[in-house]
Amino acid sequence: MTVSKPVPVHNHQLDDISLSMIPGCFGETDQVGGFAHNPPERERALRLLQDLVAQRTTWAVAEQAIHQWLDEQVAANLCSASAVAPLMARVQAMFEPWLAYPSQEGARSSATAAQT
């Protein structure tokens, strides 16, 4: 029986291409709207997700980059601070399941088992 080696998970910062895709997932106006609320935004969010998966980017790395971008929008008065948590919840619901890799799941399962 051949045992395959796990594909490494990259715990890095997002590359410039991925970073440049983030704004398009939140609307096309000067103000931040919802996340992937219409077909063009959903298509852009899917392209970003595909890019993140191809790079084996973890949810933690993606979450940090997207949250940082939203914080920058708040600082520029393009988004209200109270909108960040709901927006991040929607991003998490859509992206996190695809950015959780087996090595992470095993670590979570072990940690959960140890707590019980």
Question: Key features?
Answer:
116 residues; mainly alpha; globular
Q: How many domain regions? A: 1
What are the low-pLDDT stretches, counting only 5+ consecutive residues below 50?
1-9, 104-116
Mean pLDDT: 82
Helix content: 55-70%
**How can the largest sheet be summarized?**
none
Estimated radius of gyration = 16 Å
Structural class: mainly alpha
Q: Given the C-alpha coordinates, what overall shape results?
A: globular
Number of helices: 5
Write the layout of secondary structure elements.
Elements: H1 16-21, H2 39-54, H3 59-75, H4 81-95, H5 102-115
Any overview of this molecule?
It is a single chain. The chain has 116 residues and is an all-alpha fold. The protein has one domain. The chain has helices at residues 16-21, 39-54, 59-75, 81-95, 102-115. It is globular and about 35 Å long. Residues 1-9 and 104-116 have low confidence and may be disordered.
Brief account:
The chain is mainly α.
